């Protein structure tokens, strides 16, 4: 796999047979089209942070972890939990309202930020974008262990200071640490043993 040439919109981004309403933690990457540096401005970042932080108000089952805004993409850790699921029997769990699918959460984030960005263009002369603020697709990775969670947290926290090595930086040069991180992410098995029995939406 050539990590350097792998772009977010080229990922096999949906995991076939996995119910994205099932409780879990995800490492999310959302990119701008053609690596455009639309997110480098402080006022844009403030708006994006505000929208991201408001997601639990819209989706009560969502818990937010680390989040970073880079010049042309965002990284985040997002958890989806079924509220009260651990307090009822397995029979009654099926009667609970299912958590929103990951795609719905990400689409809400994209739609709201795009709307607010367009307002910024009209009112405050923000830089215009061509057709889309975000790529149509996004990348998600199921976090399988505490070790993986901490590794991804560290990557997100350090991302701004390592921008020159970022694989999404068109002028950057990927170093071994960046390459090893993404190789490890892509080499992990697709389904955790503890969620193989997760129900599949039809």
From TrEMBL:
GO MF annotation list: sequence-specific DNA binding; transposase activity
GO process annotations (BP): DNA transposition
SUPFAM superfamilies (UniProt xref): Transposase IS200-like (SSF143422)
Name of the protein this chain belongs to: Transposase IS200-like domain-containing protein
Lineage: superkingdom: Bacteria
Transposase IS200-like domain mapped to chain residues: 21-159
PANTHER family cross-referenced by the UniProt entry: REP-ASSOCIATED TYROSINE TRANSPOSASE (PTHR36966:SF1)
Species name: Candidatus Infernicultor aquiphilus
């Amino acid at each position: 796999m050539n990590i350097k040439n792998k772009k977010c919109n080229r990922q096999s981004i949906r995991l076939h047979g996995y119910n994205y309403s099932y409780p879990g933690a995800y490492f999310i990457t959302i990119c701008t089209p053609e690596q455009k540096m639309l997110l480098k401005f402080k006022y844009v970042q403030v708006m994006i942070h505000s929208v991201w932080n408001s997601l639990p108000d819209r989706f009560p089952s969502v818990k937010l972890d680390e989040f970073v805004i880079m010049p042309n993409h965002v990284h985040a850790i997002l958890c989806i939990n079924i509220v009260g699921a651990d307090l009822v029997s397995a029979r009654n769990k099926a009667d609970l309202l299912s958590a929103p699918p990951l795609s719905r959460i990400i689409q809400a984030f994209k739609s709201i930020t795009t709307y607010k960005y367009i307002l910024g263009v009209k009112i405050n002369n923000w830089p215009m974008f061509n057709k889309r603020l975000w790529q149509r697709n996004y990348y998600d990775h199921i976090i399988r262990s505490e070790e993986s969670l901490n590794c991804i947290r560290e990557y997100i926290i350090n991302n701004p200071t390592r921008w020159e090595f970022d694989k999404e930086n068109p002028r950057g040069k990927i170093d071994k640490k960046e390459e090893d991180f993404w190789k490890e992410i892509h080499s992990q098995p697709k389904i955790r043993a503890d969620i193989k029995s997760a129900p599949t939406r039809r």
